[in-house]
Design goal:
The complex is a heterodimer.
Chain A (H helix, E strand, L loop, with lengths): L1 E6 L11 E7 L2 E8 L7 H5 L7 H5 L9 H14 L5 H29 L3 H22 L8 E2 L2 E2 L5 H6 L1 H20 L1 H7 L7 H7 L3 H5 L7 H4 L20 H25 L16 E9 L2 E9 L5 E7 L1 H5 L3 H4 L5 H9 L22 H16 L5 H7 L1
Antiparallel strand pairs in A: 1-2, 2-3, 4-5, 6-7, 7-8
Helix pairs in contact in A: 4-5, 4-12, 5-7, 7-12
Chain B lengths: L2 H12 L12 E4 L6 H11 L3 E9 L3 E10 L4 E10 L5 E3 L8 H12 L2 E3 L33
Parallel strand pairs in B: 1-4, 5-6
Antiparallel strand pairs in B: 2-3, 3-4
The chains are: A alpha+beta, B alpha/beta.
Chain lengths: ~400, ~150
């Protein structure tokens, strides 16, 4: 007899609200239905009310993890529409941030995947090393997420040579640790048993559903917007598109881990080759009437933006399609016929996109600031302003 | 293959009905006659491995226009097929989900946001739209009144 198991919209295993309805017969999943929309904020509509230069700050908030991908895809669309040139130095900066974002995103997923199958050691490791990447992004852009680097025609800010050189030791550590993590995950017989042959997405199904990014590359499709539609500096860099033939969850893990190593390699090349002088912005005056398409390879697959302009300073239409929108429906091919216990890791293996929570950061430097000292100083400043000189203890003693 | 040779090949098959459209080194826009639309989509998807990236719907003053974006990954260009839809009481067009399964969610999104019906769609139900909005509210249409939305 068939039973339905509801998961979500709020569930300890999920980082964002989604509602799955699994129909099962004993242990076997026979049907899946999904209800989404709990995070729908109408960004496409909001975008039509912003000027071309304001939109990057809006679409940066489509996703907290892909906060460089959406503005990048949008800028590519606007640059396609207006035939806008981008200076080489700006392309280097864009590519550098994009690859660092891929590293932290893939590490985030590796950790979550470990967590989903009850292997929290992987979660602890992966997220520990991911912190270093976020710190690196803070060093280079000022922000751990939502870097605010993109604008049509270039980038908003410079990256100094000394900061670039300062990134090298972290990248070296990251490379060693990622290799360690890669070996640990793929050597583990328990993980292999949980992931190998589970949730297979055959190549023809990946094509039919229009799957993207690591999800399609793990099913043997060598599609990658960085190679197929070269933007940024990817044509100049030495890297390769990672593919696997198996199409199972293990293959999706392998593709992401190997891509992390490729991204670290590219980041180091960019630091070596990026010129120290040169313009970072072509400062386009306006966007002519017309239409443009931008497709950017985000960590989860291609981000697709379509922009239509009527010659005014706002887009008439801005269509956004995130990679998960195409990847998620593949559950129809991967989940049916599997067991209930495997359903969550299969659903998670396309790396559905999370809206990240905010995080407070200290801007003045990280290790050398004592929070207690800062707090005491703030209290002292306040007391001075109010004309209070005594400490609470002194006041009590006086009485 | 590039957009020029691709268009030549399609022209050989569909003739003048393929219509005119802009093109560059990596973009091709097509405005076909509606009668050849389904055959054209089928040719791009099945014979040329075109990947349906998404469908953009544009609310123009007197009509809707659906833009079917196909990425030809191996060839490195994107071809966009444009299809006008009349703006009457019940705007509708034929669904392509039976041909391309990946179109299911894309068409559902257009259905609820713009109110364009995709005939013969296998799952005509809500995907994204907030419960507070009625079935007849189409928030992405230009004439949708955002100011007077009630908070829930």
């Amino acid at each position: 007899m068939a039973t339905t198991i509801p998961i979500g919209p709020y569930h300890p295993l999920q980082e964002e609200p989604e509602h799955y309805l699994l129909t099962v017969e004993e242990e076997e999943v026979i049907d899946v239905d999904v209800q989404i929309g709990y995070n729908h904020r109408g960004i496409e509509k909001l975008s039509e009310e912003k000027t071309f230069n304001q939109v990057p700050f809006l679409v940066e908030r489509v996703c907290g993890i892909c906060s460089h991908s959406h503005p990048y895809a949008y800028c590519l669309a606007v640059e396609d529409c207006g035939d806008i040139e981008v200076p080489e130095r700006a392309k280097y900066i864009r590519t550098l941030i994009g690859e660092l974002e891929r590293i932290h995103s893939h590490l985030l997923w590796a950790g979550l995947a470990g967590h989903f199958i009850g292997y929290d050691t992987v979660f602890m490791w992966a997220w520990k090393y991911r912190e270093d990447v976020l710190d690196l992004l803070e060093l280079l852009t000022g922000n751990r997420n939502a870097y605010a680097m993109m604008k049509p025609g270039g980038v908003q800010r410079e990256i100094k040579r000394e900061d670039l050189e300062g990134a090298r030791p972290t990248l070296q550590t990251l490379k060693e640790k990622s290799e360690m993590l890669y070996n640990a995950i793929l050597d583990d017989p328990v993980l292999k048993a949980r992931l190998e042959g589970v949730g297979v997405l055959p190549e023809e199904d990946a094509r039919a559903f229009g799957a993207l990014g690591p999800t399609s590359r793990a099913s043997g499709i060598p599609a990658d917007a960085r190679a197929d539609f070269p933007y940024g500096m990817y044509e100049e860099l030495d890297w390769q598109v990672i593919t696997r033939e198996a199409g199972d969850t293990l293959a999706r893990v392998e593709v992401r881990l190997l891509e992390t190593l490729e991204s670290i390699k590219m980041t180091e090349q960019i630091i070596d080759e990026m010129p120290d002088e040169g313009s970072i912005d072509s400062e386009p005056e306006n966007v002519p009437a017309g239409e443009g398409i931008g497709n950017y390879e985000a960590p989860r697959g291609e981000c697709f933006h379509y922009v239509q302009s009527d010659g005014s300073n706002r887009p008439v239409r801005h269509k956004i399609r995130a990679p998960t929108f195409m990847n998620f429906p593949t559950y129809k091919s991967t989940c049916v016929g599997e067991t209930v216990a495997d359903a969550t890791i299969i659903l998670a293996s396309v790396d559905p996109c999370y809206s990240c929570t905010e995080r407070a950061i200290s801007l003045k430097g990280r290790e050398d600031v004592d929070l207690l000292e800062l707090s005491e100083k703030k209290t002292a400043d306040l007391k001075e302003e109010l004309g209070v000189n005594k400490s609470p203890l002194e006041e009590v003693l006086d009485e | 293959m590039n957009p020029s040779t691709f268009k030549e090949e399609l022209s050989g098959r569909f003739g003048w009905k393929l219509g005119k459209g802009e093109q560059s080194s990596d973009r091709l826009y097509l405005n076909p006659e509606p009668e050849i639309f389904e055959n054209l989509i089928e040719a791009i998807f099945e014979e040329h491995d075109g990947r349906l990236a998404t469908i953009s719907c544009v609310d123009e003053e007197d009509q809707f226009r659906l833009l079917y974006h196909f990425a030809l990954d191996g060839e490195g260009f994107i071809t966009t097929v444009k299809l006008p839809v009349d703006k009457d009481e019940n705007p509708s067009t034929e669904s392509i989900t039976n041909l391309i399964p990946g179109a299911e969610w894309i068409e559902r999104e257009v259905m609820e946001m713009f109110g364009i019906e995709f005939r013969n769609h296998p799952a005509k139900k809500r995907l994204l739209k907030a419960e507070a909005l009625d079935d007849g509210d189409f928030p992405y249409r230009k004439d949708f009144d955002v100011e007077n939305l009630e908070e829930t």
